[in-house]
């Protein structure tokens, strides 16, 4: 399950869904819905990314997420992923230095 401070990603996805319904628009394509739902089921946080209507999403996965399950399901649905990591900027405080455990 995503860490509590990652809940903002889920809230953002919900807000975008509400906006789409109220405006009569489709922001999340079927592929993005699969990407997000599969990531959430695997214990990650996910939402669409970009201007909407395309097939770009972002997933943040903690160490305990079932990445293999997620990627297998994505492959079955022709969803491609970029394996990216975020590095702190020079001089930034590493989260481990603040005492948080990332696993």
From TrEMBL:
Coiled coil: none
Pfam hit, one: GHMP_kinases_C
Domain of life assignment: Bacteria
Domain (GHMP kinase C-terminal) ranges: 16-74
Keywords of this entry: Transferase
Alphabetized Gene3D superfamilies for the sequence: GHMP kinase, C-terminal domain
Record protein name field: GHMP kinase C-terminal domain-containing protein
């Amino acid at each position: 399950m995503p860490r509590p401070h990652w809940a903002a990603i889920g809230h953002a996805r919900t807000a975008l869904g509400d906006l789409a319904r109220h405006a009569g628009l489709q922001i999340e394509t079927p592929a993005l819905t699969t990407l997000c739902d599969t990531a959430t089921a695997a214990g990650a946080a996910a939402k669409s990314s970009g201007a909407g209507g395309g097939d770009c999403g972002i997933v943040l996965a903690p160490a305990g997420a079932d990445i293999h399950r997620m990627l297998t399901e994505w492959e079955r649905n022709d969803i491609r992923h970029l394996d990216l990591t975020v590095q702190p900027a020079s001089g930034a405080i590493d989260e481990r230095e603040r005492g948080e455990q990332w696993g």
